[in-house]
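Memo to structure team: turn this sequence into structure tokens by end of day. - J.P.
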Amino acid sequence: MPRTVTQRSENDMPREIPVGLEVLLCVARRGSATQAARDLHTTPARVLRRLAALEAWLGTTLFDRTPSGLVPTPALERVLPWAEQAAGAVGQMRDELAGLERAPVGQVHLALFPGLPAFLVTRGLDRFLTRHPGLTLHFEPASAVVDLSRREADLAIRTVRPTSGDLVAQRVSTFSVAVMATPSLVRRTSRRRLRDLPWVAFSDSLSNTSESMWLRANVPDARVVLRAPDQQVLLSAAQAGVGAVVVGEPLGLLAGLVRVREEPISTNGELWLVAHRALRPVPRVDAVWNWLITAFQRGRRDPW
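Reply from structure team:
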């Protein structure tokens, strides 16, 4: 049985909708007030206050507070499906209201995968924002695929085309991926054996990227001398001769690197621009979408 926090008669129950569903869902998903606070850009103390207020409104305890953290109670299992439905309904309402916009104004959150060079998404940005002074852009690095259906972002640039969800996607770039290093490092490596090279690679938190998986599969005993969560850091290190790197070839060429092997390891690298179908025609999202398409089209005429 759910434990009662306060005893109230039906007449004493507040009728207003509680603010705290987003906090509840985030805590349930992340399992920690601290992690939820980071996702929600607030403090753990505020997360706990919002959670306590929701529990008081419901009249039950959803998480036990223990020395090791928050522990879900049986009541949470019953509440969570309703909370998810309510959050989904609120999201749909916001989408409907967003469709009433007449001009591209407001905030647009764009989720970028780690290591995407900033210049790829800032081509002509000054002119674009001059034309649309009511817009504010938020670039959100995301190590995991964000859930556009939950409005964790308005747009996303991904390396794979989404296969689920009510999403629209457009391919904006194709490229080859290669093992690259400075010419001097390549010359110093006997017979260009990959295991003889020092390597710079993504941090363990990005072990699911295609570059990380290729390195583990093909050079299991690789001598990794530097790990970082940002490809621009890895490129700078490779440019300085620290080690070889698995990277999109156009980007490596811009950094003055050359292939370690004759052939690229992959010729089907892709970048996809993705949005939720309901938000795609909203003026502010549509304006940013079209600007990004134009930016990448310009990039095809120049080496990126």
